[in-house]
Design goal:
By secondary structure, this protein is α/β, with parallel strands linked by helices. The protein folds into three domains: 168 residues, Thiamin diphosphate (ThDP)-binding fold, Pyr/PP domains (Rossmann fold); 154 residues, Rossmann fold (3-Layer(aba) Sandwich), CATH 3.40.50.970; 137 residues, Rossmann fold. Helix content is 41%, strand content 14%. The strands form four sheets. The protein has a seven-stranded mixed sheet with strand order 9-8-10-11-13-12-17, with helices on both faces. Strands 2-3-4-6-5 form a five-stranded parallel sheet, sandwiched between helices. Strands 14-16-15-18-19 form a five-stranded mixed sheet, with helices on both faces. Helix 5 packs parallel to helix 6. The radius of gyration is 27 Å and the shape is globular.
Length: 639
């Protein structure tokens, strides 16, 4: 049997270990070929191929439940659960999602995209099973990086107090999350793995065997296996599982995560044990692809690339730097002049651009691991002591720290600067990663200031503004490359809080745009001009506070108002403008353009914009239809 013949994971039950090893290679080949063509998460899935095969070999997935943490590593799972024929559509519009989705496949038992949720979900399933008197296995697979998240530790603590509840937790220990892991738990695992005793035994063994005449060279492959086994045995002797045993788990491992026979034996033993069980599996992120093994950060996820060279496919036309890079360079430049500035990331150094700060000013850089709640309250504590903390966290991930923003930062009115990368439409990562809600969930909090730059130069000014503001302040900016305007080299000044700017003047309609929608608003105005409609375009800059002095007279004079935002309409920027007008008793028609009350699925960003009716042409058509339908010829309205 070959991979393309597998439509149900239970078909693995009839295969031998050697046949499973063939399937493992076919999974890696398909995985690599697909990601090279479409882009996606590369290293995580390559590291869990044997783990997935061995686990599914021991389960009946018509009954048993498996919860994968995050979903970065779930591509082998997808290939074994009836999605081989559609796998080439990965992360494309209408195709296979990059993460698990309950609505996509019956074997996706729990959807995810954020880390540290798996143990809680699997424990919930196990408790529900017992309450209903049912009998099936529940398994959570979590990486050592996700184990740094407080939610995972809360779930372990709860499970350990339920000695009669059968739950298997598989710790996939590859020493990585996206960036190298930080914190006490990964450090503890690494300390034992790299301890002098383990290193002495393995190195001394290698030296002795290689000195045996006619034998040493021929044993090189077997030698590596012996060395790995010595490390594993020594780690057991050092009681690596003591912490889990104390928390109420039966601990097993570490186990070689690329030895299918050993994994099957271990999982079968674990399934027979009562209560919560922790199986510690040691894997290599990017296993089987040398480039991914050598650069585990760079190959965590990749855009389309050349499989032979490992290099990304580059367009002939150079692109402007990304917003993340401009942010990282700007913050680092300012931090060089002010030692009070400290950048804080939650395991996303490269993604947020803080890797630049880390390299140049490591003492002014903090990575807390996958712990956004801790990151925010840590920043609050630092602000209490006169520091200038900058919490650079993706919009979608900052959702996890909402209470800390309210309780620890805003109620105390502390000067914490939130920098929300990936705000708005993010593309192929889909609904779990769309940065749709930050305007709405931050705008309602007293003391918070919200701003968004129209381009990379304005982002630099806003970084200065955020660092100079004596209170909570947040800046959102989109994923990807900038507009291409020249960045500033000197003379940066903070922007006046709550002040926008007029970019274009016209008497027929007022377009008030926020952040990344400013340039599309200008393009929309040009299309309207083709229909003899002249628009005033305002770059709001701030969603809170709004520039009432600028906006109210314009709304009253022009009388037709359109708001444009790359975020949810409910509670968003347009809502703020409408509330302002209502509070002031200004009754003018307002059209809000943004994301309606729907989940935005995975697709290329431009496909999502088109589906949402947010391209300049579509927005111009909506404005014409709303405000000027009776003034134009029918063919102009629909053109």
């Amino acid at each position: 049997m070959h991979l393309h013949e597998i439509s149900h994971p239970n078909q693995l039950h009839s295969l031998s270990v050697s046949q499973l090893e063939v399937i493992a290679q076919e999974i890696r080949d398909k995985h690599l070929q697909t990601i090279a063509a479409t882009g996606g998460h590369l290293g995580p899935g390559l590291g869990v191929v044997e783990l997935t095969l061995a686990l599914y070999y021991t389960l009946d997935l018509d009954r048993d439940k498996v919860v994968w943490d995050v979903g970065h590593q779930a591509y082998p799972h997808k290939l074994l659960t009836g999605r081989y024929d559609r796998f080439h559509t990965l992360r494309q519009k209408g195709g296979i999602a990059g993460y698990l989705k309950r609505c996509e496949n019956k074997f996706d038992h729990f959807g995810a995209g954020h880390a540290s949720t798996s143990i809680s979900a699997a424990l919930g399933m196990a408790i529900a099973r017992d309450l209903k008197g049912e009998n099936f296995k529940t398994v959570a697979i979590i990486g050592d990086g996700a184990l740094t998240g407080g939610m995972a530790l809360e779930a372990i603590n709860h499970a350990g107090h339920l000695p009669q509840t059968r739950l298997l937790v598989i710790l996939n220990d590859n020493e990585m999350s996206i960036s190298p892991n930080v914190g006490a738990i990964p450090k503890y695992l690494n300390r034992l793995r790299l301890s002098p005793g383990v290193q002495f035994l393995s190195n001394n063994l290698e030296e002795q065997i290689q000195n045996i005449p006619f034998v040493g060279e021929s044993l090189s492959t077997e030698l590596e296996r012996i060395k790995d086994n010595i490390k594993i045995l020594t780690m057991v002797q050092n009681k690596v599982g003591a912490v889990f045993e104390e928390l109420g788990f039966t601990y097993m491992g570490p186990v070689d995560g690329h030895n299918i026979a050993e994994l099957i034996e271990t999982f079968n033993m674990a399934h027979r044990l009562p209560g919560p069980v922790m199986v510690h599996v040691v894997t290599t992120k990017g296993k089987g692809y040398p480039y991914a093994e050598a650069d585990q950060v760079g190959y965590h996820a990749q855009s389309a690339f050349d499989l032979a060279t490992g290099k990304a496919n580059k367009s002939s036309k150079p692109k402007p730097p990304s917003y993340s890079k401009v942010f990282g360079e700007t913050l680092t430049h300012l931090a060089e002049q002010d030692p009070r500035i400290v950048g804080i990331t939650a395991a996303m150094a490269t993604g947020t651009g803080l890797d630049i700060l880390q390299k140049r000013l490591p003492k002014q850089y903090i990575d807390v691991g996958i712990a956004e709640q801790h990151a925010v309250t840590l920043a609050a504590g630092m602000a209490c002591e006169g520091m200038k903390p900058v919490a650079a966290i993706y919009s979608t991930f900052l959702q996890r720290a909402f209470d800390q923003i309210v309780h620890d930062v805003c109620i105390q009115n502390l000067p914490v600067f939130f920098c929300l990368d990936r705000a708005g439409i993010v593309g192929a990562d889909g609904p779990t990663h769309q940065g749709m809600y930050d305007i709405a969930y931050l705008r309602c909090i007293p003391n918070m200031v919200l701003m968004a730059p129209k381009d990379e130069a304005e982002l630099q000014s806003m970084v200065v503004t955020g660092l100079n503001h004596n209170g909570p302040i947040a800046m959102r900016y989109p994923r990807g490359n900038g507009i291409g305007v020249p960045t500033m080299a000197e003379g940066w000044e903070p922007l006046p809080i709550g002040k926008g700017e007029i970019l274009r003047q016209g008497d027929d309609v007022l377009l008030i745009a926020y952040g990344a929608m400013v340039y599309p608003a200008l393009q929309t105005a040009e299309i309207l001009r083709e229909h003899s409609i002249e628009a005033t375009v305002v770059n709001a800059r701030f969603a809170k506070p709004l520039d009432r002095e600028l906006l109210l007279p314009l709304c009253q004079t022009i009388g037709k108002v359109v708001t444009l935002e790359e975020g949810c309409l409910m509670g968003g920027f347009g809502s703020a403008v409408v509330e302002m007008l209502m509070d002031e008793g200004v009754t003018v028609p307002v059209q809000r353009l943004g994301v309606p009350d729907i989940l935005v699925d995975h697709a290329a960003p431009q496909e999502s914009f088109a589906d949402l009716g947010l391209t300049p042409g579509q927005m111009a058509e909506k404005i014409l239809d709303r405000f000027f339908k009776n003034q134009l010829q029918p063919e102009l309205v629909t053109s």
